[in-house]
Amino acid sequence: MFGQPKPRFAIYSPYYTPAGPAVFGRDRDSSRQVWSQREGYPGDPAYPRFLPRHRAGFADRISGPFLPSDHRRNTGLKYHRITGQGANKELYNLGWAAAAADSHAGHFWRAA
């Protein structure tokens, strides 16, 4: 919106730079809904925890020719859902997450 020359349709159309490539502005409201953990869809408690510092799952037993039968290994899967800042986390439920994603997609589409 502050480009020179000023873009004709602000952030709602490409802006062609003097060098040739087109760039696109960012709609702050849409970005917040899609990316913000605090204000947007990603913070819904139905979704799995997504930041690296949160618990990742461990497989109970992974066996193979070079591993002992009781070997535990970090799978990287997230078994817990977003349930606040405390240490106790509730298990992720795929059905709840699918319903939340469907609701959020509908909300985003209607708001557009």
Description:
The chain is of the alpha+beta class and 112 residues long. 23% of the residues lie in helices and 7% in strands. The chain has a two-stranded antiparallel sheet. Strand 1 and strand 2 form a beta hairpin. The two termini are 19 Å apart. The mean pLDDT is 77.
Query: Helicity range of the residues?
Result: 10-25%
State the helix count. 2
What series of H and E elements makes up the topology? EEHEEH
| Low-confidence parts | none
Mean pLDDT: 77
Strand line-up across the major sheet = 1-2
Distance between the termini: 19 Å
Shape: elongated
Going by helix content, strand content and strand pairing, the class is alpha+beta
Gyration radius over CA: 21 Å
Largest sheet: 2 strands, antiparallel
Q: What is the chains' assembly state?
A: single chain
Percent in strands: 5-15%
How many DSSP-defined strands?
4
Set out the fold topology.
Elements: E1 15-16, E2 22-23, H1 28-35, E3 58-59, E4 73-74, H2 94-111
Antiparallel strand pairs: 1-2, 3-4
Features:
single chain, 112 residues, alpha+beta, two-stranded antiparallel sheet, 2 helices, 23% helix
Short structural description:
By secondary structure, the chain is α+β, with helices and mostly antiparallel strands. 23% of the residues lie in helices and 7% in strands.
